[in-house]
Amino acid sequence: MSEKNQMTDYGTAIRDAFAYLLKKYPEVFVIGQGLWSPWYVGNSMTKLDQEFGIDRIIDTPVSESACTGAAVGAALAGMKPIVVHPRMDFMLYAIDSVVNEAAKWSSMMGGQANAGVTIRAIINRGGEQGAQHSQALHAWFAHVPGLRVVMPSTVSDARDLLIASVLSGDPVMYIDDRWLYSLEENLGPVKELELHSQGPKVVRSGTDVTLAAAGYSTKMCLDAASELEKQGISAEVIDIRVLNPFNPELIAESVRKTGRLVAVDGGWETAGFAGEVIASVVERVSPELLKISPKRVTLPASPAPSSPALEDIYYPKTDDLVRLVLENLRS
Amino acid sequence: MNSQLRQALASGEIENSPIIDEALDLSSFSSKELIDHLTSMIRIRQAEVKIAEMRRDAHIGGPVHLGAGQEAIAVGISAHLRKSDRVFSAHRSHAHLLALGSDVRKLFAELLGKSTGLTHGMGGSMHLWDQPNGFYGSVPIVAGTVPLAVGAGLAAKMQKTGDIAVAYFGDGAAEEGVVQESLNLASQLGIPILFVCENNFFSSHMHISQRQPIHSVARFADANNIENEVVDGNNLISVNAAAGRLISQSRKNNVPGFLEVVTFRHYGHVDWREDIDVGVNRSASEVEKWKSRDPINRLKSALIKSKTLSENDLANIYNSVDSEIKSAWNLAVSDPYPAEEDLLRSVYKEVRK
């Protein structure tokens, strides 16, 4: 737990959440690959195995599918498990347990049993890692009723939304991004939030344009907003935080005010989350209030490249976003 | 006998092995136990026959995967289970459920999509749940619940309850990768679970000879250092005894066990037909041969031969079961459907503190 007036980084905040949960709730345990390694998941789980024992911090055989399924089954038997997938790409073997079992269990069993499991999937990309060490597949999971999908973009959300996920009683995909691990914040005391009452938040107020994003893309929007301010443009930034069930009202309200929407997402364009944001807003906002057509910033339609030359142009940067906003405001 | 059966099964010679036609040895069971088991098997059979007829006549709208002919397995295993154990199953699960003492009317109501059903009309035949009786759930994704059962067993170990998990699956599921992962995980973590593979030779329309080079699935247990037995699944006595041995070890030592039971389903893969004329490798004579090994008839004859049961007692059992089934069906038919708002009611759990 962080002391007063002390800065905590994003990775440590995640570790704080684990420690809080493991200390307070005996039914919490963690299962996944790399949990006894000092480097698999950055600084986000350092020495938890030594503090809470290897019976509760279970490093596993190379079996994403069985381990995720086992966590779902343990949840049905009264535990509050957290599965850790150090890279989202590797958890695709586990999709049956997430999509067919955990997400549907409550509905198909008539609400008599819930798979209260938290699946922590880490987006870990860049560094010339290429196509299978890079993916941000949150949009897939946001498509599925019964799953909650959470992407914390701030240090306090990294901690408090993980705690809320584990206590929610529902299956939750908690997706954190290694590019955020160095963010720092002066954290207040832990809050046990009710996940079902959490949703998008205005993280910066503005009047000229609405930037909506989740996870690392939110940080990029905040950086762009600072840059835009220097150029006399006031951008409102909305951090989506909870992608499923998705409540777009706040974004729509913002766009009614600004008349301009840019949806920024770390996934691909087609059937992606930026498209969902735009569609939801367009459905809610009268056309005459829109001063420009909504825009989206996403990845190019290719798997992530490994060459540094291509990687450099693959991931959108703050400058790209600033340029896009300026072009559209001036047109 | 175990090893002879294993060998005959593995080599595809099981049909010619006299082992699966052996008479039942009742010596280590009380009359009451045996009669209770017979009654439970008859109850399951009569329920399945009723379901087959109602599906054929279109009173039941959705698909049903019937287990008639496989009753001895669930009944033999359930004799060693308690309500706090954690049983998971798959698409062909009615017998597993009813053997735990589940209410036939609630099963029928579920098949009819009624709100009084086991899953309040939300699951149908392929998604069943009766946790108060130890039935944690069944789903039709092949092998989908196998890792879930491993996790429920892991939870039992952590909770120190002495409970075990049971994973029922078929010979087809053994071809899924997640089953290998689950066996390895259970063995490595020391998890109290009984894996039960009902080897009925057919996965949907495909005979095991078209799918696996060796026809005994217990080889996967050997590969993962899991104690295992292969028994005649139509012999209640063999199933009961083997399950008893494996389950007591699991409870005591937090280890997995693996039971392969050789059996045959009377109906085809799905619904009421026998599947002898749809281009699959399943002939009328094969079905007839296996019907002559009917687990209920085998127990019945042994009980009558040993004078544990009279023809009159038997008639009374059938009368009482048939009247339960009839009244359960009639009640289920008149039960209400879910309300429109039930569609969204249980997608998420509203958090309570």
Structural description of this entry:
- The complex is a heterodimer of chains A (331) and B (353).
- Chain A has 331 residues and is of the alpha/beta class.
- Chain A has 2 domains: 7-194, Thiamin diphosphate (ThDP)-binding fold, Pyr/PP domains (Rossmann fold); 201-330, Rossmann fold.
- Chain A has 11 helices and 14 strands.
- In chain A, strand 6 (148-150), helix 6 and strand 7 (172-177) form a beta-alpha-beta unit.
- The longest helix of chain A has 15 residues, at 10-24.
- The mean pLDDT of chain A is 96.
- A 7-stranded mixed sheet of chain B has the order 2-3-1-4-5-9-8, sandwiched between helices. Chain B has a two-stranded antiparallel ribbon with strand order 6-7.
- The model of chain B has no long low-confidence stretch (mean pLDDT 95).
- Chain B is α/β, with parallel strands linked by helices.
- In chain B, strand 2 and strand 3 form a beta hairpin.
- Chain B is built from 13 helices and 9 strands.
- At the A-B interface, helix 3 and helix 4 of A face helix 6 and helix 7 of B.
Return the structural class of chain B.
Answer: alpha/beta
- The share of residues in extended strands of chain B comes to 5-15%
CATH class designation of chain B: Alpha Beta
Total number of helices of chain B: 13
Derived from helix and strand composition plus strand pairing, the structural class of chain A reads: alpha/beta
Q: In the CATH classification, which architecture of chain B applies?
A: 3-Layer(aba) Sandwich
Shape of chain B: globular
Q: How do the helices and strands follow one another from N- to C-terminus of chain B?
A: HHHEHHEEHEHEEEHEHEHHHH
**Average pLDDT taken over every residue of chain B:** 95
On the 0 to 100 scale, the average pLDDT of chain A is: 96
Characterize the largest beta sheet of chain A: strand count, sense, and whether it forms a barrel: 7 strands, mixed
Kindly report how far apart the N and C termini of chain B lie.
56 Å
Secondary structure tally: strands of chain B: 9
- Low-pLDDT parts of chain B are none
What fold name stands as the CATH topology of the largest domain in chain A? Rossmann fold
Helix share bin of chain B = 40-55%
Strand order of the largest sheet of chain B: 2-3-1-4-5-9-8
Overall body shape of chain A: globular
